[in-house]
Amino acid sequence: MKDVTKIRSESLLLLIDEYGGQAKLAAALDVTPGYINQLKTARRGIGEKSARTIEIKLDLPEGWMDVAHDTDGASLAPAPPTTRRIPVINRIQAGDPRPVIDGHAPGNGIDDIWFGGATAEKLGSYSFALIVEGDSMEPDFKPDDQIIVDPDVVPRPGEIVVAKIGSEEEATLKQYRARGTDENGVEIFELVPINHNHATILVNTDNPGRIIGTVMHHLRNMRRG
Length: 225
What we know:
Elements: H1 4-19, H2 22-29, H3 33-41, H4 48-57, E1 83-93, E2 111-116, H5 117-122, E3 128-133, E4 146-150, E5 160-165, E6 172-181, E7 187-192, E8 201-203, E9 209-219
Parallel strand pairs: 1-3
Antiparallel strand pairs: 1-2, 3-4, 4-9, 5-6, 5-9, 6-7, 7-8
Helix pairs in contact: 2-3
């Protein structure tokens, strides 16, 4: 009799095929493609907890992962949920401002991130991804982490934003803190680093700036180097 972990691995391969690749299956499960690859190559196979989690997230019957399936028949997996490709368009400095492009055309980027389900539906049409550099937002945001930015979402106090300071081509990642308006009705706000070794930036008429968008999702790079 075939080992159940071997069957689960075969079931995973079937799901990857049904969903059109690892990236799209990862989006449906709200995990990274790297996690799917780890499941594929795990020396001990796919464990009980991982198998049940996959079934729940994909609305499969309990035990589906543990049963051998006839791949000659009709599609065995449910229809994939809404999936979206979010372009990675640049790197952003979590410290000193640096160039970033936010006027991209949908679908254009140096790389892509796939999202599915409720996450995909909540993001605006012009959402994009950036790669973090610098240490001013550590320990919450580390270099090479990825953030998803929605330019259509107005930030609430305390939320993380991408903002441009001075030159139209400079941007930085910080926490947004509203400070009201001046006598001309111009908004005053602070861009606050999480790492207290960096200074807070005050945005006003003397130091103009604008919010590019609100950070909606954070993908952490668990392995460094």
